[in-house]
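Fold description:
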Amino acid sequence: MYVRIRSQIRPRFLDPGESAALTLAEQLQADELLIDDLLLNADLSYEMGDIEEAAKSFEAAFASGGLTDDLRCNSLLWLAECQHELGQADSARRNAGRVKQSPSAFEKDKECADALLKAIGP
């Protein structure tokens, strides 16, 4: 599996006197790499037709808290698309609705969420 497990990324202390700020900065950088890996894995999985794996990665990226609000909405939209393709209509409808109503979502994502909601139906 391409995605690194969050528990494998730990702050490292090279010296007992090492600055906590440096350690925090390193942790934030590691978190950014994790999110990049999650999104890359999600995109590749989706393109290769592994919709379940794509959904897991989009959901993990959304839940990570390391994305800006607009990118979290984009991940949520892709999660909804995956859920729709997996026959999880209720979850897809709920998540697409969240994107459509979000003030942080890109306008294009809101339009796509609206189209997905129409495709899912009532």
